[in-house]
Design brief:
This protein is of the alpha+beta class and 243 residues long. The protein has 6 helices and 10 strands. A 10-stranded antiparallel sheet has the order 9-8-7-6-5-4-3-2-1-10, covered by helices on one side. A hairpin with a 2-residue loop joins β5 and β6. The longest helix is centred in the first third of the chain and has 27 residues. The radius of gyration is 28 Å and the shape is elongated. The protein starts with a helix and ends with a helix.
Length: 243
């Protein structure tokens, strides 16, 4: 009896299934966007770090290839610990904005100034510094050796250490507008490829319709499907770029 009822209402059942799939996919797409693009990250030596652990007296950040970073928060001094070495950071308020003093384990000192959201670093002589380093790590986070069998010297840009110590200076990961463009291309491409009503609509709104055939032909449907596939394929690099 149930089979007969299902067979007698194929349209309603297919509509119900399509609606259920649409709602499920929509929830997954929105949930991913809300979760992924709301997560704060910062970059240290071109490695992206995310928060993986947080307690009142300890925050841990991890990346894929570089060692983990521990931040010990305090009202007066923030301590950033990397490879068991402590980098201490103090903050002082100035009329032009906060100024950060960064002390390295080797007693080097730097000053970091927040310039409209950009962390500018200066050495003890007041000269602007820019650290460009390439560091390689083994899977367990230990530094790799160079050809001479010595450890590669590692240094961290002072402004990046300030971003690690103060979550307020960390940015949200990814580019959300690109993500929604990718979703739009995927949905639009699927509609062009899958639904004949959409293909017919594209035929009738074509400016050449007045002197074309009265009805869409096989070539028109082929072009719609082909362009739909191109849009769905094109959505992939846009999606990857948004991450």
């Amino acid at each position: 009896m149930i089979k007969q009822w299902i067979a007698s209402k194929p349209f309603k059942l297919s509509t119900l299934l399509t609606t259920a799939v649409f709602i499920t996919v929509s929830v997954l797409i929105i949930s991913f966007a809300l979760s992924y693009f709301s997560q704060s990250v910062f970059y240290l030596n071109d490695e992206k770090y995310k928060k993986t652990y947080e307690q009142p007296n300890l925050i841990t950040y991890q990346s894929r290839n570089a060692p983990s970073i521990e931040v010990i928060p305090s009202n007066d001094v923030q301590v950033v610990r990397i490879n068991n070495e402590d980098y201490t950071i103090t903050r002082k308020e100035d009329i032009n904005g906060p100024i950060f003093h960064v002390n390295y384990p080797n007693d080097e000192k730097y000053t970091v100034v927040d310039h409209s959201g950009t962390m500018l670093s200066y050495d003890e002589n007041g000269e602007m510094v820019s650290f460009i380093t390439i560091n390689a790590y083994a899977g367990n986070g230990t530094k790799l050796l160079n050809n001479a069998g010595e450890e590669e010297e590692i240094s961290f840009y002072p402004g990046s250490l300030v971003e690690a110590a103060y979550p307020a200076y960390q940015g949200k990961q990814g580019t959300q507008p690109l993500y929604w463009i990718a979703v739009f291309l995927l949905v639009l491409g699927w509609c062009w490829y899958r639904y004949e009503k959409v293909q017919n609509f594209l035929f009738y709104i074509n400016p050449r319709y007045s002197w074309q055939d009265d009805e869409p032909n096989g070539f028109h449907y082929f072009i719609c499907k082909f362009l739909g596939i191109l849009m769905m394929v094109g959505a992939l690099p846009v999606f990857l770029e948004s991450l």
